Amino acid sequence: MGNRSVADADGLLAGREPATGGGAGDPGAAAALAGGVLLIGAVLAGNSLVCVSVAAERALQTPTNYFIVSLAAADLLLALLVLPLFVYSEVSPPGLCDALMAMDVMLCTASIFNLCAISVDRFVAVAVPLHYNRQSRRQLLLIGATWLLSAAVAAPVLCGLNDARGRDPAVCRLENRDYVVYSSVCSFFLPCPLMLLLYWATFRGLRRWEAARRAKLHGRAPRRPSGPGPPPPDAILAPDTTPPPTPSPPLQARRRRAKITGRERKAMRVLPVVVGAFLLCWTPFFVVHITRALCPTCAVPPRLVSAVTWLGYVNSALNPVIYTAFNAEFRSVFRKALRLCC
């Protein structure tokens, strides 16, 4: 993902190429520079606030929010290492270009892998709540695995895959069409269906749990009223008999189930919005991206490439806005932090 607005005929992935077409006096370049600066500021401010809020507020330190912090960290690194590409792309040497492109691939992959990790964690919490481990060790291992897999997807660029013969040193782009397809499939077209399937199973399980809970509450026998009156039928026993003890789940299991279906279930309501915003912002880019790799003769307008690329980058600034709008706890902590800053 990059910022090139002018695509050449041989470019495999113009959406990941830096701007090389306009000078400092070009109105389009000036607008891109101003928009890029504003976007970088918004991404840095919003995602820094997310990380600081979760670190400072104990109520936000839930398993789901650990993954949200990891997602915010990917957006912060994107704003620091990738978005400034168009500012100094004209003086960037090819080695630095390859490193930044590898970071771009890795951070985009890390974003969607973190969303997939959230879906896996929520599915486990709903499917096997009594065996769900709320300790942070399992969540941290899952987050570490997402970053390692993301680095593995981007590693070929750093290992010399992009050093094609006859490469133009003034242009920064992915040169290998097979890698374009490979990275697209690994970063987007495989994780997205898996994530959607897991969320469908998770919310289906939640609906079943709620239905069973309501049925249990409505079917509970009423308590015996105080004062004189006939005892209930199940209380008529022999004088020397005692009612058999009713089996009950262990106390720890009941507590674990209650915690999972309390604050964390409320936090889950924001996740479909986060996933929907991610798919809305990145699906056009990857569709254009893989179309250019599989169909070199297809005419893709440069303005379309530029538009879908920046639409993907805008997603990094959207998540803090989503948390503020749909999560009351985040909204309260954000207000508190802003009052302290002001």
**Gyration radius, rounded:** 26 Å
Number of helices: 12
Shape by Cα distribution: globular
- Percentage of β-strand residues: under 5%
Overall CATH architecture: Up-down Bundle
Give the beta-strand count: 0
Mean of residue pLDDT values:
76
Q: How many domains?
A: 1
Topology as a string of helices (H) and strands (E): HHHHHHHHHHHH
Determine the fraction of residues in helical runs and give it as a percent range. 55-70%
Structural class: mainly alpha
Write out the CATH superfamily name.
Rhodopsin 7-helix transmembrane proteins
Ends distance = 35 Å
Low-confidence stretches: 2-12, 14-22, 226-242, 251-261
CATH secondary-structure class? Mainly Alpha
Taking the sheet with the most strands, its summary is: none
CATH topology call: Rhopdopsin 7-helix transmembrane proteins
Region (Disordered): 217-255
Subcellular location: Cell membrane
Biased composition (Pro residues): 225-234, 241-250
Domain G-protein coupled receptors family 1 profile: 46-323
How would the blueprint of this fold be written?
Blueprint: H1 27-56, H2 63-81, H3 85-88, H4 94-127, H5 136-161, H6 177-189, H7 191-218, H8 251-260, H9 263-268, H10 271-294, H11 302-326, H12 328-341
Helix pairs in contact: 1-2, 1-11, 2-4, 2-5, 2-11, 4-5, 4-6, 4-7, 5-6, 6-10, 10-11, 11-12
Can you put this structure into words, describing what you see?
With 342 residues, this protein is mostly helical. It has a single domain (14-161, 168-215, 252-341), classed as Rhopdopsin 7-helix transmembrane proteins (Up-down Bundle), CATH 1.20.1070.10. It is 68% helix and 0% strand. The chain contains 12 helices and no strands. The longest helix is centred in the first third of the chain and has 34 residues, at 94-127. Residues 2-12, 14-22, 226-242 and 251-261 have low confidence and may be disordered.
